[in-house]
Please model this.
Amino acid sequence: MNKVFLIGRLTRDPELRYTGSNVPVASFSLAVNRTYTNQSGEREADFINIVVWRKQAENVKNYLQQGSQVAIDGRIQTRTYDDKDGNKRYVTEVIADNVEFLGSKSSNAASGSGNNDQGPTPYDFDKAPDTKGTDVDNNPFADFGSSIEISDDELPF
Model:
């Protein structure tokens, strides 16, 4: 089985090209944080090349940019080619079956540099939502009226 799931941020704007038969293909690099820190306490990242085909490739080009956060599921593919000097080169990349837009680069939302012509802006998970002033650490239901009693004895299970 060859299945990959990744969550990360784009390291550059996606590049969109078309094949000889006019099929769209987009490519970009994804920075994925490792789950551990190195000896100096810093979290390292892997930079993974992603390829997306057809309508999803056009959506990636239109709605994502450097810093956008995405979830990818797909498969790993390796291929070879000969460079201009005749040397054999190996490429490993993820062919994305699905790209889910998770958020955008927080500085883009703050600076207003997003382009409104490219459709809706993805939700920015880095920005805290506006709240009414409720201190949820003490009592998250303080502004909702009287108390409610919940008992496990009344559940039908």
Observations:
- The beta strands are 4-10, 15-18, 24-37, 43-53, 69-82, 88-103.
